[in-house]
Specification:
Number of helices: 9
CATH class of the largest domain: Mainly Alpha
Strand content: under 5%
Order of helices and strands: HHHHHHHHH
Oligomer: single chain
Largest sheet: none
Number of strands: 0
Distance between the termini: 54 Å
Structural class: mainly alpha
Length: about 200
Amino acid sequence: MPRPSHREKLLDIAQDSILAKGFDATSIDEIVAAADITRGGFFYHFADKNALALALIERHVIFEDQIFDDLFARAAELSDDPLHRALIGLKLLAELLEDMEAGHPGCIVATAAYQERLFNQAVRDANRRAVLGWRRRFREMFDEIAKVYPPQEEVDLNALADFVSTVVEGGIVIAKSLGEPKMTAGQVMLLRQYIRLLFLPRS
């Protein structure tokens, strides 16, 4: 397995620290010391903490998108039905979260949102694009479902798409607060049940 580049090593170290204690409490000196490079080595890759935050957000989005792509591609192999495909994908997501013994490590996008006062407009815009990208992904999924299964109750599909992110991100926060790492998976399964009830015709 190839060794990570200096840039990736810096991103890995920064991410671990930021998820543990936030952007504000993570210093460049701390990252440099852990990476065993000079400050000049850090600034070769990142002009400042804004550039570091931007790189972390962009990398996180790619990583999360790949996870969702993989999960829902597996679901598509198991069913052609849009609702069943979504339900399978959410079950696979819950299983993935359940398998994380120490719980989900956290979300860089959420962490940056909590401390947005620290960042320039480019970082805030990147965070907004990340959230809107997840909204678009799940809105497309719900649009496909609604064509076959009209919702049983009136629902804003953008709000429903955001609800997926809200449940996952909120589940991570609550699981960490309570020291119950398996809790997020349970929240996703409740979301799955709601979506099933919302779209499946009532007999």
